[in-house]
Amino acid sequence: MTTAVSAIIILGLLILFHELGHFSVAKLVGMKVHEFAVGMGPKIIKFTKGETLYTLRALPIGGYVKLEGEDQKSEDKRAFGNKPLIARIAVLFAGAAMNFILGFLIFLILMSGTPQIITPVIEEVMPDMPAAEAGLMPGDRIEKLDSTRVNIHKDIIFFLDMNGAQPIDVTIVREGGRKVLQIVPAIHPEYGRYMFGYSPKLAETTIINAIKYAYYDTVFYTKFIFVHLGTLFRGQGTFEDVSGPVGIVGAIGGAARAGIEPLMILAAIISINLGIFNLLPIPALDGSRIMFLLLEGIRRKPIDPEKEGLVHMIGLAMLLLLMVFATFNDITRLIR
Prior knowledge:
Layout: H1 2-28, E1 33-49, E2 52-67, H2 85-112, E3 116-125, H3 130-134, E4 141-145, E5 148-149, H4 153-163, E6 168-174, E7 177-183, E8 186-187, E9 194-195, E10 198-204, H5 207-233, H6 245-258, H7 260-279, H8 286-299, H9 305-335
Antiparallel strand pairs: 1-2, 3-10, 4-5, 4-6, 6-7, 8-9
């Protein structure tokens, strides 16, 4: 029961924010909106306000904003296809943007409720570990690892996990100046992962700190997802790791049982992941539609709607096959 309720609330929230992005910008630029729907399938709640029908549907697996002239030609001057190119791109981009904003807001709530925030500043150096041998000192702030900028402590952990035992040029800020030290990470005997060997300093949570670290958390997980997508498409990962609806609901249930904080973190990550996925240039997704509009801007004439529609239809079929494949993976993992 906890899993089902948590999944419905989180997936419903993600869909609501995504579609609210499309809807709000469409209204802002003066497009005619026929329907704003959260969920798919049979209508549970519906009401009309002005020219727009608002519906809540039974299945929390999607949603949509139905715009005049989005998929067909229309003579209405407020139709999607008759608006300036930049307005149409803004409407399509707004859904993903709202998912990033939702992720940021969740992290901001979490940060605001935490008395102290972990920083990339050294509090204490462990003896007989690489940090001590390289000359790191309490008070040093780690600014860069090789050419990668460090904003939060998670950046260091992720870099070390990806880097392994390779030497790293560590740029630190010490007493207003900068210094570069070369450090070779070592596996900590207790934690079993590559580390420099220091404990990070905790900073008191303020409004400014909470906003800053919530933003950096959003940037971190965006980068994290892109890196793992890259490994997948380079063949370094496996598509067996791809999860579908069953896996996502299972992960939400596990996080809900662990507590409200893990559940909120997972919700933020899923929201960011949804934003990134929707911007990929895959037919039927917002990213592909934006690509067609950019192509229209380069050609200075619109793409044939029938040809574009065919591409999106093929893309939708491919996405449905991927969902079936991912669901099969989820079920296979459950019965192992």
